[in-house]
Amino acid sequence: PAPPTPPRPPLSCVFGDVLVEGASADLASLATGPGLPVVGSSSGDAAFPDFSRAFGFFRRFAPGAVGRVTASVQGYSYLARSRTFTMSKARAASVDGVIRTSTVYADRNLLRVAYQVRDAAGRTALDSAGLSVDLWLRHAGSALEELVACGALGDGAVGACAASLGEAWFSTDAPGAAAATLLLSYGGVMMASTDIGSVTLAEAPLRSSLAGTGMLAALPQSPVFPGDAVDVVVTANAGAEVLLTWGLTVHYDTSVLS
């Protein structure tokens, strides 16, 4: 008897090119995710291993949003599941701030500034890796200046700066001023800067000194507010005598202080 006819190889092996000849491939994004396909941007065809399509219109979606892309040939998907991608976060492109303490004093010398950074589209969900913000202060009447590193970003890309100004910033002749600028950097390279105004440096009062025997009480130089503790520093000069005992009586208005 004649030998049996050998089995025919699978079509996918012998006629693979024929099966996809003239077929159309497609890449599509799910309607609920970010990105839309760009018409006319497809390249390649289903007969070759490489097929691409451009997607755009991502700007209206928030950074961190997850999208999905499906691939199909002749309308049939051969992927077990769609492939996902995540919207990347852009770098900060601008910084703005508000001076919270518009006037500082020699004994209340902590200057506070609040700032916020945004990307080029105005979003606060951004790439913070390597980001830093500094507060640059310049004295209006001298060459005195100071650069202070601000705190890290918090929710809403908001942060804070704090600078303690030394005695050299204050004059006993007249009030002064200092210009404030915020500097935005990535990896030490400045990307943006914003002038946020000036700070008033209150005139520092002249302190009396004890030239001879007696006592001296020094009151606060800056305003005090309800709830503040008022410190009064008292010094004494006994001359050539030995000060063995010292009794103090402080008189104050009980309608003002308690």
List its salient traits.
rod-shaped, mainly beta, 4-stranded antiparallel sheet, 5-stranded mixed sheet, 258 residues
Explain what the structure shows.
The protein has 258 residues and is mainly β. The protein is 3% helix and 37% strand. It has helices at 11-14, 16-20; strands at 25-29, 36-37, 55-56, 66-73, 76-77, 83-86, 94-99, 103-104, 110-118, 131-139, 145-149, 158-164, 176-186, 189-201, 214-218, 233-237. The chain has a five-stranded mixed β-sheet with strand order 8-14-13-10-11, with no helix packed on it. A hairpin with a 5-residue loop joins strand 10 and strand 11 (145-149). The longest helix is centred in the first third of the chain and has 5 residues, at 16-20. It is rod-shaped, with a radius of gyration of 36 Å. The termini are far apart. The model has no long low-confidence stretch (mean pLDDT 83).
Low-confidence stretches: none
Number of strands: 16
Main beta-sheet annotation: 5 strands, mixed
SS element count, helices:
2
Main structural class: mainly beta
**Assembly state of the chains shown:** single chain
Task: Walk across the major sheet and give the strand order.
Answer: 8-14-13-10-11
Shape: rod-shaped
Distance between the termini: 123 Å
Q: What is the overall pLDDT average?
A: 83
Rg, nearest Å: 36 Å
How would you concisely characterize the structure shown here?
This protein has 258 residues and is mainly beta. It is 3% helix and 37% strand.
